[in-house]
Amino acid sequence: MAASSVQSLLSSLALRPAKALGQNFLCDGNMAKVSVAMAQLRAGDRVVEIGPGLGALTEQLLAAGTEVHAVEIDGRLWTFLEKSLAPRFPGKFFLMRGDAVEFPFGDLCSSAPDAVVSNLPYAITGPWLDALLRLPLPSGITLLLQLEAIERLSAPIHSRRRCAMGVRMEAAFRIRATRKVPPQCFFPRPAVQSAIVHFRRLDSPHTFSGEALAVMRHCFQMRRKQVGTSCRAIGDEPLRALADRWLTDHGAAINPKCRPEDLTLGQWLRLEELRS
To answer: Whole-model pTM above 0.85?
Structure first.
């Protein structure tokens, strides 16, 4: 669907893209096909889509023979899809109205889908990934994201872009492919660069506990400070005790003068091992 067609359809529905919801509608069918191909889906796979919007990607997913479980927060778009798409794919398209941060897998609740494929609204990238990493993990995640977000999630050790979410994703997934998406592929055009990224779950993925995650987040929130200084500033006594064990642990071999982006995944995982 071309940008002009998307604009006309929105006008006919008396809909205006909501900036607060990060609504930039995909208007390039080829990019929707790229997402589906990159996801390496099989007929019958249960796929979660966040923010289906006008259904451009949804139709491609359904055409691939998958069972789509979508969650849409905008009641106007939910109504449109319920009337236009749901009747055409009975037993294949399941649409939930709700907040994807509260329901990361839509109506599947905490049951892991085979895959997630989505043009993820930029505003919820971090909160949605945080919610996802607390649930059983799908085998693959294919997301159309802000390019800057992908660079943070994939930033290597010593990079200033390295962040707590990037470490968490590194512990559970590997990036298998990326594809840049020009701004003209959306209506309205975003002011940022975008790309499609495919994450494949590791054979032995790891998700961090609340305690280890709290220490990690604290360190990255004070990223300009040395790790030793950051850990001594933790106000919660049990967390500070965990951080102290970590800093002095021979197996972790932490240099207290380094910055959080200089620590390896293995060193962060050692923090998890020491929490009990």
So the answer is: yes
